[in-house]
Amino acid sequence: MSEPNAITAEPWSVLAPDCPSRVIFGRIGERWTMFVILALSRAGTLRFTELRARVGEVTPKVLTETLRALEGDGLVERRAFADSPPRVEYSLTPLGESLLEPIGALRDWAERHVPEVLASRERALG
Amino acid sequence: MSEPNAITAEPWSVLAPDCPSRVIFGRIGERWTMFVILALSRAGTLRFTELRARVGEVTPKVLTETLRALEGDGLVERRAFADSPPRVEYSLTPLGESLLEPIGALRDWAERHVPEVLASRERALG
DNA sequence: AACGGAAGTTCCCTCGGGGGAACCGCACCT
DNA sequence: AGGTGCGGTTCCCCCGAGGGAACTTCCGTT
């Protein structure tokens, strides 16, 4: 897993719970993670309710969980102000922003090739 | 980055069930998908039981489901021979192989930055 | 005639991610 | 003294991915 090149490590290493790929794919595979990251990447900084509005039908509980997880991973920063009404601002950390590049690569692939994937799915079902 | 490169589409578009990012992240986020792709990328071609052995503790049922899903997406090819004992070979399609590049980018990011993520997690719990 | 291996299939169960709905503390406003 | 907006929390439930374990079919081997 510590080999220099991309897909060269032994696949079974990925079974370890702290395998880098498991950690990252596990996180970004969660239901709302991508929405939050993409929303923050566009807006820069958002408050809780702004995030709710942008992300869609997420419930406050789940949004809180998602944000706490990303904060725990050091990908999102949470700044609370002692104002009234309370104000909390979320933004990507530098680490979080550095993740945008590889995510973008996957996104680009998706944009280009998902039509093929969807066509293949339909063929498989038809 | 809201810069004109990677992450430019509206985030809420991602809510649509056929949004490219949802399709792809949904698939590679599944439990065994990455193991199968990585194993095939290393070996080129593998039979069912070889795959079982490499991927680890996966049960035959779940491995079958995973392979059928990837086959349905056009990412994996399944070739069955009328031999006896039966022989079935799995390999990546060209489409599946083209996915290795963006996955590799994410993998590289993971290799480089997961120590930070894990350190952050430990801080968050301690 | 029994055995074994390949490639699954079938049935049943468990576990937890995710969702719904309601509640909470605070400080203003009026 | 009641209402409002913010940023959550609490409790409860449901569904489906994933797992366990046994069974199956087809043939060749011993």
- Integer count of domains of chain A: 1
Give the number of DSSP strands of chain A: 3
Q: Averaging pLDDT over every residue of chain A, what do you get?
A: 85
Number of helical runs of chain A?
Answer: 6
Determine the N-to-C terminus distance of chain A.
40 Å
- Overall, the morphology of chain A is globular
> Structural class from helices and strands of chain A?
mainly alpha
CATH architecture identity of chain A: Orthogonal Bundle
Strand content of chain A: 5-15%
Radius of gyration of chain A: 18 Å
Report the order of strands and helices of chain A. HHEHHEEHH
Look at the structure and name the CATH superfamily of chain A. Winged helix-like DNA-binding domain superfamily/Winged helix DNA-binding domain
Describe this structure in words.
2 copies of one chain form a homodimer. Chain A has about 130 residues and is mainly alpha-helical. Chain A has a single domain, classed as Orthogonal Bundle (Arc Repressor Mutant, subunit A). Helix content of chain A is about 55%, strand content about 10%. Chain A contains 6 helices and 3 strands, in the order H-H-E-H-H-E-E-H-H. A 3-stranded antiparallel sheet of chain A has the order 1-3-2. In chain A, strand 2 and strand 3 form a beta hairpin. Chain A is globular, with a radius of gyration of 18 Å. The N terminus of chain A is likely disordered. Chains A and B meet through helix 1, helix 2, helix 5 and helix 6 of A and helix 1, helix 2 and helix 6 of B. Chain A binds a DNA duplex (30 and 30 nucleotides) through helix 4.
